[in-house]
Amino acid sequence: MPIISVVDRKSPKTRVLIGAIYIVLTVGAITMVYPFLLMIAGSTKSAVDLPDNLVIPRFLVDTDALYRKHIEGLFNESFEMMQMAYDTTAVSFRTLEPPADDEGKLVDEWEAFLKRNSLPFYMYATGYVRAPVSRGVLPRILREFKAGLMDEYDEDIEQMNRAMGTEFVNWNAFWVLPEDYTLRRNKPGSDPFDLAFREYKEKLPPETRTFFCIEGFYKNSFLKSQYTEDLAEYNAAHETSYESWDEIHLSRTIPDGTDLEREDWETFVRTILNLLWLRADPAAEPYYQRFLEGKYRTIQGLNNHYETEYGSFSDIKLFEEPPREGLPLSDWAAFLEGWKDPDTGEEHLLPIEMVRLHTLEFMFRDFIEDKYGTIAKTNSALGATFGSWLDIMPPQASWHYKFFNANIKPLRHEFVVRNYATVTDYIVRHGRGIMNTVIYCLLAILSALIVNPLAAYALSRYRPPWSYKVLLFVMLTMAFPPMVTQIPVFLMLRQFHLLNTFWALVLPGLANGYMIFLLKGFFDSLPQELYESAALDGAGEFRIFWQITVSLSQPILAVIALQAFTAAYANFMMALLICQDERMWTLMPWLYQLQQRSGQGVVFASLLIAAIPTFLVFAFCQNIIMRGIVVPVEK
To answer: How far apart are CA 299 and CA 306, in angstroms?
Structure first.
């Protein structure tokens, strides 16, 4: 019968009591659900929205927040690269705003320029290949590139290492370093792996590319670092009156401005900018030939080093593009920076007036100039107000924003599932974690359903005089925390040479004092007449145990199986201690290792994925669990 009768429920005091109970239960539910929702929202985080503590991730309802996440991923979480490409005044990805200027016609010209020109690989980088700030995340392009190599080499990492000249320990150690060809020290790789990624990125849609803006690099990384981002200091030093950094441009050749402007340009070109962006006028060819003659003395000496067959130094021609590697590249850098002959003291230096920049900005300006002829016609056609050709910049921000607006739904989906895809890839590709966990849990359940019921049945059926002493002994094992027994268990397993085996995982928990105590109490409550009738009918002990005891004990046995599964699935410390061979690790050690090198988003995603098996068991076994709780009480 109910605790509160129907009549009593009509009383005001009772109604207040019932209302208070519901309020308390509701508050309790909220205190449980709210942290869980925060964890779900946290599992979608990257570096840009890490400070947010919202139940619903902001990027799901706010397109500006989604735009920031997209740009963060597009520039591989490198704010400096984004600053250079966009030449923006934003101080972080969190403060970045979508482009406000309408550059629709200029964007159309930019897309026409990209279709017309097959740009070399060093002019752009690929987005979504690395997330160093978010830590541990596998961005989309990296996942796809990795999956392609896995298919090509039949998931054999050693085979790929031999073919590509790499040294990846396993597929979860696979990574790609984002390209950066702005600084002098960064040179294109020539290994098979570098060439394979270069070939792969050329097949990707142009919208995944971020183009290197050398003018942005000049202003943001060179000028602002010298003048502490203080425009007033720059104006005072250069005797100029610029109102913003946007008015400062990088000229193709050495500028005709003040001596300090010329000095800045020359320093930047001779010592900082990557050689890939520099070209020499044909008139510099004799200077280059004299430099090589001064360094190698004889044409035979140069041929021996270069492995060439020049007849004389006058046969050597200037190249269209700088060499990519080897001694020719080193000599070209020395000629640009200046080389002093140790014997004669003569200094060989490429005249700065013969140096010109070959960057994407000037290529785009030449494209616009060839199409419209004058800056006035350009402004009229594009609806712009450019003061000179130097004011025209590739509209990367607007171009990327156009792609963003056309792909909001796929981008949202990517950021929702990205961390989960990272965790799934890790546990599926990493060792035998899933298989080991399945085998371990099955063995743990099987052993718990064999050893514990047999022990409890013996104590309940035969009732030896010392049964309570045995129960007390097995219950005393629960008084000691697992940390106390870890060392002796480890030493004993090592003595029997059982480490790194499933026996080492199962044997320490083979018999459980609490389970034996619970089962004995349940078996004692079963009608003894059934046992007597079965014995009179000639049933053997095993038949009595199996057809009577086990049949009537299914609810409590389900609870025992559930406890055994939970203990085995969640076992981390002992599984790591007694199975130090990674091939025997279960999911928990693998996920712990992943969490140690991952950011908050991946950690939360791993916790939610790890909770799925336990949640499914509880969701589909609620009736059995409740019967296991209620039936012993009723008995």
So the answer is: 10
CA atoms within 13 Å, Cβ hemisphere of 487: 3
Q: pLDDT tens digits, residue range 119-156? A: 999 999 999 999 999 998 999 999 999 999 999 999 89
Is the predicted pLDDT of residue 633 greater than 70, yes or no? no
Cα–Cα distances (Å) from 613 to 38, 434, 562, in that order, read 21, 12, 12
Sole residue written with tokens 């670092």: 225
> Which residues sit opposite 543 in a β-bridge?
none
Q: Rounded to an integer, what distance in angstroms lies between the CA atom of residue 256 and that of residue 390?
A: 14
Give the Cα separation of 403 and 419 in Å (integer).
23
Structure-token pair, residue 304: 């021996």
CATH 1.10.3720.10 corresponds to the domain 431-634: yes
SS3 348: strand
First to last CA, the chain: 18
Q: Parse the chain into domains and list their residue ranges.
A: 8-42, 63-213+395-425, 221-273, 275-354, 359-392, 431-634
Interatomic CA distance for residues 492 and 477, integer angstroms: 17
What is the DSSP annotation of 382-405?
HT---SSGGG----HHHHHHHHHH
What is the pTM assigned to this prediction? 0.86
Strand partners, 356: 279
Q: Is pLDDT of 634 > 50? A: no
Token pair for residue 561? 């199986």
Helix extents (H) in 297-374: 299-306, 326-337, 360-372
Mean pLDDT of the chain: 88
CA distance 399 to 108: 9
The values of phi and psi at residue 199, to 5°, are -65, -35
Please give the Cα distance from 519 to 628 (Å, whole number).
Answer: 11
Judged against a pLDDT cut of 90, whether residue 554 lies above it is answered with no
Judge contact between 212 and 360, C-beta under 8 A: yes
Cβ-contact 265, 258 below 8 angstroms: no
- Closest by CA position to 314, among listed 348, 287, 344, 347: 287
Buried b or exposed e, range 538-566, using 16+ CB within 10 angstroms: ebeeeebbeebbeebbebbbbbbbbbbbb
> Has residue 625 got a pLDDT over 70?
no
Total Cβ atoms within 10 A of residue 156 = 13
347-348/339-340 β-pairing: antiparallel
Residue 402: is its pLDDT beyond 60?
Answer: yes
